[in-house]
Amino acid sequence: MTTTQTAPFSLRSIAVPAFGPALLFSIGEGAILPVVALSARDLGASVAVAALVVTLIGLGSWFFNLPASLITLKFGERWAIVGAAAASAVALAAAALAPLVPEGLWLLAAAMVVVGMAASVFSLARQKYLTEAVPVILRARALSTLGGVNRIGIFIGPFIGAAVMQFAGITGAYWVGVVAMAAAAALSVTIPDLVAAPAADDGVPIRQATLRSVAVSHAGVFLSVGMGVLLLSALRASRQVVIPLWAEHLGMDATQASLIYGLSGAIDMLVFYPAGKLMDRKGRQWVAIPSTLIMGTAMLLIPLSTGFAGLLLAALLIGFGNGISSGLNMTLGADFSPDNGRGQFLGIWRFMADAGATGGPVLLSGMTAVASLGAGVAATGVIGFAAAAVFAVTIPRLKHRRNY
Predict the structure, then answer these.
(1) How many CB atoms lie within 10 A of CB 278?
(2) I want to staple 353 with a disulfide (CB 3.0 to 4.6 A). Which of 30, 114, 233, 336 is the partner?
(3) What pLDDT sits at residue 88?
């Protein structure tokens, strides 16, 4: 058997088509997230209903993860990404026009569900694409970069939206989202097609995987490492609620709370690539365990803070811990996903992660209602230590072949 010499793979070779659409999509999301509740209120919603409209984005994404895997398998990664971005652009255009129609609140709510569903397809398809396009030895760097790009887009999106709203009002944020999503769809057309590996012709037909067969055959993975991913997602989602709530508890104004949250997010964006490099060279445990321990410790420190400086230090520690875990969930999903049934596996994997992201704030809310906000924050910190314990036991020490 002869072998052909191929050039070494470089992330730069797919940087623009692989990461560009992700940046644009997350900018679109970031632009609208701060104004959805305000739009609902303007359309006559109560505070509770306005909060529910915002939640519909996450719920749409969570419940559509499994159908998203089937859509990606049917149309392929590139066209799934293009279609998801285009659908999100149409939904955001509808949201921008909601004030002009009689049942505007219902239109806004439906648009947010579609945005969540589109985000599910977009995220799963790009994760599957990078998993198959990038060599294993560069996988964590690629997926950490993807996670970092998402963070950057979510961070700068609100600033772009705010600038446009100065001239176009609150609907300007949605039009920023429309432009960003449409640009993501257009750029996604340039994503190179994956070259399928030739199947071994041994006369035995390959049985097509289904969601059920993948769930059964990989139940051990989902109930072990998958539980760590669920806990990590709960921890991440809770941190977004904890910082502003504790700032308010300490009597800070909105400007101080926003400054602390923004600085935490800035630290979050700075460390994603070194963390990915560490995971590729040393193994996933080198990031999974420290990141969850750091975030868990920071959560336990928050109830002990009594002023701006103390909360800022804890928030910066949370940002660092979350930043080094960038792409961790996606990397672990890629590592354990089978060649036959990868799309279905990643759909279930993302469903579990989103379940954790939904459940974390619910736990915080429940503990706060039963005991106090401090107790709720501390319970969230315990989740970090539980996640670290799960990862320490379940993640194998990956030893990649060094091809350089």
Answers:
(1) 18
(2) 233
(3) 97
What 3 state SS string does 226-250 have? HHHHHHHHHHHHHHHHHHHHHHHHC
Best CA proximity match to 109, nearest among 121, 91, 87: 91
* 14-188 matches 211-394 in fold: yes
Query: Which positions ≥6 away from 127 have C-beta within 8 Å?
Result: 143, 146, 330, 333, 334, 346, 350
By C-alpha distance, which of 132, 89, 50, 72 is closest to 334?
Answer: 132
Residues whose CB falls within 8 Å of the CB of residue 34, separated by 6 or more in sequence, listed in order:
158, 161, 173
Sign of CA pseudo-dihedral 134, 140, 142, 146:
positive
**Is the separation of the CB atoms in 348 and 220 below 8 Å?**
no
Residue ranges covered by each domain of the chain: 14-188, 211-394
Residue (of 32, 62, 51) closest to 358 by Cα position: 62
Residue with tokens 């429309």, as numbered in its chain: 178
Q: Taking a C-beta distance cutoff of 8 angstroms, is the pair 142, 135 a contact?
A: no
Q: Does residue 294 have a pLDDT over 60?
A: yes
Task: Using a cut of 0.90, tell me whether the model's pTM lies above it.
Answer: no
Rounded mean pLDDT of the chain? 87
What letter does residue 98 receive in the DSSP assignment?
A: G
Block residue for tokens 């470089």 = 10
Note whether 146 and 138 are within 8 A (CB).
Answer: no
Number of CB atoms found within 10 A of residue 371's CB: 12
Across 103-111, average pLDDT: 94
DSSP string covering 128-190: HHHHHHS-GGGHHHHHHHHHHHHHHHHHHHHHHHHHHHHHH-THHHHHHHHHHHHHHHHHHTT
Architecture of the domain whose range is 14-188: Up-down Bundle (1.20)
First vs last Cα of the chain: how many Å apart?
24
Kind and range of the H or E run holding 1? none
Residue 202 DSSP symbol: S
pLDDT value at residue 397:
62
Residue 202: what are its φ and ψ, rounded to 5°?
A: -110, 10
List the one residue out of 323, 291, 13 whose CA is nearest residue 151.
Answer: 323
Cα–Cα distance measured from residue 262 to residue 225, given in angstroms and rounded to the nearest whole number: 31
Task: Give CA–CA dist 286/201, Å, rounded.
Answer: 40
Residue 260 has pLDDT above 60, yes or no: yes
Does domain 211-394 fall into CATH 3.30.420.40?
Answer: no
pLDDT at 10 over 90: no
